Amino acid sequence: MSTWTRQPQEREGTYFFSGKFLVTATVNEELSQAEILAIYRDVKSYVKENEGADYLFVYIDEDERKLFFIDQLNSEMIASGGHPPEHNYCTLLFAHEY
Question: Could you tell me the residue range of the domain that residue 65 belongs to?
Answer without folding.
Answer: 5-97
